[in-house]
Amino acid sequence: MELNYEKKNIWEELSEKEINEIFEYGERYKKFLDNSKIEREATVTIIEKAKENGFISLEEALKGKIKKGDKIYLNNKNKSVVMMIVGEDITEGMNILGSHIDSPRLDLKQNPIFEDGHMAYFKTHYYGGVKKYQWATLPLSLHGTAFTKDGKKLDIVIGEKEEDPVFYISDLLIHLSKDQRKKSMDEGITGEQLNVIIGHRSYKTKDEEKNPIKDSVLKYLNKEYGLVEEDFLIAELTIVPAGKARDVGFDRSLIASYGHDDKVCAYASLEAILKVENPKKTAVSLFVDKEEIGSVGNASMGANFFQNMVAEVLNNQVENYSDVLLRRAFANSKVLSADVTVAFDPNFAEVTEKNNVALVGHGVALAKYTGSGGKFGSNDANTEFLQELRTLFNENGVIWQTGELGKIDQGGGGTIAYILAAYGAEVVDIGTAMLSMHAPIELLSKADAYMTSKAYEVFVK
Ligand code: MN
Ligand code: MN
After folding, report:
1. Where are the CATH 3.40.630.10 domain residues in the chain?
2. How many Å lie between the centroid of ligand 2 and the Cα of residue 411?
3. 81 CA to middle of ligand 1, Å?
4. pTM of the predicted model, to two decimals?
5. If pLDDT is split at 50, 70 and 90, which confidence band does 208 have?
6. Cα(262) to centroid(ligand 1), Å
7. Going by DSSP bridges, is the β-strand pair 105-116/236-241 parallel, antiparallel, or unpaired?
């Protein structure tokens, strides 16, 4: 009988064979990261994978009779996805994995283009929690969707191919930053200074152009994409760090990338549900948008698209559909709120408490509660549910630990956990512990990413 609890180090616990699997998983995950920087791209990647694995769209499924074992996906607004494998009786509850596929970034303002100092710029409005100074002096790329006036839809990615140009936000040279360096980090670079350089050359023109550089950028955009300035007023375009996910360390044991929060849990949920066949309980992976700005809007967990989907499936399956069936389905469900948490960083040891913070390489991190200032705003998971999970994980070789988002009163954060909990489902936050969360390039352990997927897999199976 082990009296004392001690965390386990994945690298030390696993067999050589499983360590190999960690690295293979890392390769697949990096590919996902590179193709899915924004929610629209992640939606495309996830649905492609779903279709390859026999999932059909909800519309298609509703044409026939939905039965046990059917694999169904829902594309919600091209920004969020539900993958569902139908079990015996949905009213007995579902096993749900809920991750988000949006990450902090710099969205273009609606009227973004201007020129100054013989350079052309995009004005941006940051999305989600960012430390603004981190976004300067990095190679940046442009992603998103725009419409031309005649209705042509353009999915744009510029700055990711080797031969593509990138974009850039300047910072003040050290030589002249005497005053800037006295400011707080919050004020060193302000939101309105996050202006992205997009061009500099002007064409020689005979007429008196007021903004020759802006005009030359517009000429280029019109030639290449058929866009005019008015198209930007309604577009969804965003700036993210350019470049691919990279291995970190001599031993290649970590990954540095944009968007680990929450692509690491999204990808883990994707691989997990793809391994499920014919489950007793309906298995679901949710990939939602807008978590980083509070889960509002019709692509977010706060919207009803998932409930509507379950209602459609139930209505297809039973003779007399009623609201109470839907309520039962949700109240009997179990949810892993699949989101990242903080890992201990010795550089900033003072903000975490060493007995309760997650450690890199020590397994998927279960956070009974999040919130801030006295657990405020937290979904505090029930011990009965946690007991079930502990047993499940221990019996199936899942290395897990607990995590806490910082020392008491140091700040905090939330996830989508509270939303499904409101329907009566059992919900707990469980995901990958990481460093530099919300930085342009974040860091995590391949061992933890792999173990996250393993935990999700045993849960949905
Ligand atoms: Mn997150
Ligand atoms: Mn986040």
Report:
1. 10-103+258-460
2. 14
3. 16
4. 0.97
5. low
6. 5
7. antiparallel
Alpha helix locations (H) across 82-226?
Answer: 185-188, 212-225
104 C-alpha vs ligand 2 centroid, how far in Å? 7
- Six token digits for residue 407: 């020392």
| pLDDT over 90 (residue 209) | no
Q: 105-241: which CATH number, 2.30.250.10, 2.50.20.10, 3.40.50.720, 3.40.50.410?
A: 2.30.250.10
* Gap between the Cα atoms of 266 and 125, Å rounded: 25
Burial class, 362, CB count within 10 angstroms (exposed 0-12 / middle 13-18 / buried 19+):
buried
> How far is C-alpha 39 from the chain's CA centre?
8
Calpha distance 63→96 (Å, rounded)? 25
H-run or E-run covering 418:
helix 417-421
Helix (H, G, I), strand (E, B) or coil at 93: coil
Give ranges for CATH 2.30.250.10 in the chain.
Answer: 105-241
Local structure of 444: helix, strand or coil = strand
pLDDT at 31 over 80: yes
Half-sphere exposure of 50 (CA within 13 A, CB side): 29
Pairing relationship of beta strands 80-85 and 282-288 according to DSSP bridges: antiparallel
User: Distance from the CA of 173 to the center of ligand 1, in angstroms?
Assistant: 33
The CATH architecture of the domain made up of 10-103+258-460 is 3-Layer(aba) Sandwich (3.40)
DSSP string, 356-399: TSB-TTS-EEEES--BBTTTBT-----HHHHHHHHHHHHHTT--
- Residue-wise pLDDT tens digits, 127-178: 999 999 999 999 999 999 999 999 999 999 999 999 999 999 999 999 999 9
Measured in Å, residue 100 CA sits from the centre of ligand 2 at 9
Distance (angstroms) between ligand 2 centre and the Cα of 253 equals: 23
Mark 383-417 as b/e (b = at least 16 C-beta within 10 Å).
eebbeebeeebeeeebbbbbbbbbeeeeebbbbbb
**131 alpha carbon – ligand 1 mean position (Å):** 16
Ligand 1 centroid, distance to 382 Cα (angstroms): 21
Q: How far is the CA of 207 from the centre of ligand 1 (A)?
A: 51
Residue 380 has pLDDT above 70, yes or no: yes
The Cα 50–Cα 73 span in angstroms is: 7
State both tokens at 327.
Answer: 């309520």
- Whole-number Å distance between alpha carbons of 416 and 419: 6
Quote the ligand 2 centre to 165 CA distance (angstroms). Answer: 28
Ligand 1 centre distance from Cα of residue 68 (Å) = 32
Looking at the chain, the whole-number percentage of residues with pLDDT higher than 90 is 91
